Structure formats: structure tokens, C-alpha cells
Amino acid sequence: MKIKIAIVDDNTFLISAVKEKLSFFEDFSVKFSAMNGSDLLTQLEHNHNLDLILMDIEMPVLNGIEATQIVKQKYPHIKIIMLTVFDNDENIFNAIKAGADGYLLKEINAQELHNGILETLNGGAAMNPSIALKTLKLLRNPLSIESQKDKEDIKLTNRETEVLEHLSKGLNYIKIAENLILSTGTVRKHIENIYKKLQVHSKLEAVQKAKRNNLI
Amino acid sequence: MKIKIAIVDDNTFLISAVKEKLSFFEDFSVKFSAMNGSDLLTQLEHNHNLDLILMDIEMPVLNGIEATQIVKQKYPHIKIIMLTVFDNDENIFNAIKAGADGYLLKEINAQELHNGILETLNGGAAMNPSIALKTLKLLRNPLSIESQKDKEDIKLTNRETEVLEHLSKGLNYIKIAENLILSTGTVRKHIENIYKKLQVHSKLEAVQKAKRNNLI
DNA sequence: AATCATATACGGCAAATGCCGTATATCTTA
DNA sequence: TAAGATATACGGCATTTGCCGTATATGATT
Known about the structure:
Rossmann fold; Sig_transdc_resp-reg_C-effctor (chains A, B); DNA-binding; homodimer; Arc Repressor Mutant, subunit A; elongated; alpha/beta; DNA binding (chains A, B)
């Protein structure tokens, strides 16, 4: 028995791309596709004999998060994997709350998509490592789960993030420099830049703002 | 430059098994192993030039969760992947809270362990799908996060608590003194006493410890 | 090839911080 | 009532921190 899959995306080109990826595997059968959440619900009315849905988030009429919530409510047996280009905290958290069983990015290759689907049907959750890390951070910082809306889009470099993590442990310049094998001067410069980006003026404020914005 | 790894497990047979798995890959170098968390900390004192630690949980003297918390505190640059046979919610959640960057099961094969390590060093989180699912569930049910353990019994005076609350907002001595209508000297003395009770040495540490102990 | 972002490093200075005293008034509690 | 805890206040000092420069090397982007 083949695994029955549906694809929901408002971009027909991307639907084709996903179908293409799935076509490599004989154990999959794409039953149908939908242009948005509402369209999906209509089709499910007729036929909900389905194993799994690959769901985009940004869609007109009824978005992927809302659709997921409704589908999970009505047809809990259908697994849902979010398949989207966006990996911002808000989407991830809302998708999980809505009941998604996995969260993958569209850039995924065919083999990994295949694995993710099988793992999900096998009682696991599909997510790539960067998404996994975000869920861990969300778990660590209940604060970051709160008001997601007014979050600014702050971009730190890798090095800055590393330094910030050390800061958050209460380490001073010297210890941070030791751990990262840097001069204290460089560490202090990084911190200076971090302050500017976060618009703060002390270690404490930096750490708090970073946590609220899920940077660490 | 090879990736520098340490293995922590109280079962020497299992250490050998992991080494065996890692030996297939030339980009890895197992720097040392430790029998428990305490042993690990001692060895890190001498050499913390390390990229990643594979950490068991159930160990005598100092278990993997506690060890993770301490290592992450002192050497935040070192990634830690829990590698254990148990995947109960309690362990997973505590490991994440302690700062683990991944959670894998010992039954993992060599190739997947290799991938997980690389993904983790690359800024992702390593976890197998069943663990991933559990983290999703933990995220969905904030209540399940409640169960707390033995917190120390730290007693602050009302005034100290007030000062601590101000501290936690990122205010400096002068602002706190203004708000509480005190001299800065007094505020500083209160903070001194707070530090002694909490056994910390900076504003940041004080706020973090206070939060962990529900003091503010 | 040129520009931009990033990572690295050094120096200086004023302010803030952490830690050590001491001291007094008040309030609890044994 | 006497002892202990608490809140208040002041002075000093070494270190850390926050902020301002400048500068070079590298890698990415255009």
C-alpha cells in the first residue's frame, strides 16, 4: 500500500517541484494538491483517506497554520509536515501549537524529504537541525514564546552570537576571550557591536533582550 | 583541523563502542573520555580546547544533566550532545534546560552520529525524530514543564527583594536609589548582601540565580 | 576589481561595579 | 531586656565595563 500524500501550496510551480522530488520514490502517491487551506478542507470533505499533508504556511484565504489546526481537529490521523521557506520563531511556534508533526524547509532535497515523511509516519517528528535548535531555544526561554508580534529582526553574526552566549552565562571579558581564544580587546569590540545592534548599554540588558528575541 | 571530541560515560564498554563508531571518520579526534561528570570537569580544567562532548546521563558522582549545566556555564563554546539509552520526558527536558545542543540515543548508527555531530557544530541541534516529537509535545504543553526539583532555600529580606527586582530590570545603582529613595551607598550595600546570600558576584548572575529560584 | 561585512587587535578614558571597611537607628525575638 | 537581624549611610580602592578611536586581513558580493 502506497503512502497517500497531499500537497498544499498557493504556488503551482512549487507544487510541481515537490511532486518531482516525491516522484523518485515508489512508496509515495500524491493523491491531490490544494491552493490554500480552504481548498484543502473542501477536498478533504470528499476524501480524507490520506496519510500525510505537506503544508505551506503563507497562503491566501486560509493559511497553513489555521488549516493545520482545523485538519488536526477534524482528522487527527493525518500527519502534517509544514513545508515552507520561512523559519521564523513565530511560524514555528504557531505551527507546533496548531499540531504540526514536523517542520521542514523547501530547500530540502528529495532524499531528506523522503526520510522526514517516513519518520513522521513512524511516530517521530521531522525537522531539520536548524528548526530543532529553534524549538530547543523556545523550550529554554518561555519568555520568547510570549509576545512574538513586536519582535524586531535583529541579525547578529555567528561570532557575535557566540559571544552573547558566553555573556549570558555571566562570564567576564577575560573568560570569554579565553574560551574563544581571542584577545579581550576583540571580545569587547564584539560586545560593543552587539550593544549597538540590540540598542542596549549593559550585559544584563543585552542578555535579556537576546532572550526575548530568541537570539540565544 | 580535526574536530575535538570527548566522551563521558561510566560504562567503559560503551565508551569503546562510541569510539569505534567515530573511528570511521577521519575528521574526528577523540581527545579524552571521562567516567562521570566530575571526572570530566577535572579534565576540562587542564584542557578545555574542545569542540564537542558526547554525554551520558546516568552516571555516579555527577550525572550528565548536572555536568552539562556546569560545562555550559563555564565553557559555553563547547557543544554537548546527550547520548543515552533513556528518552523519557524528564531527562529530555532537563537536558535541554541544562543547555544540551542535542539528544541522541545510543542505538544510533555511526553515520547518523557523524551527521548529528556535524549538524550541531554547524549551528543546528541533533536529535532523532522520536526525541524531536517529545520536544514538540513539551512545547505544546507548558504545564508539563512545571515539575520542579529541590530548590535551595534562600531567604532575602523585603528590601533585598525590592532591590533585586530593580536589578533585574537592568537599572544601575543610581536609578535604583532614585526609585527606592535611598542613597546609592545603601543600594550597593544591599546588593553586596544579596550577592553573599546567592553566592554570586555580578548583577547578571544574581538575576539569573534569582529567576531559577523563583525569588523574582 | 572594488566594495562591503566580518573578525581580529590595540589604546585610552570615564563611569560603573564589586568588595572591603565602619557606623547608627530600629525592629524582632529569644 | 539583651542579642540579633535589618535598613540606612559614608568612604575607599582595584577591577570591570561601556564607549570612543584606529587598523589590518579575509571572505563575500557586486
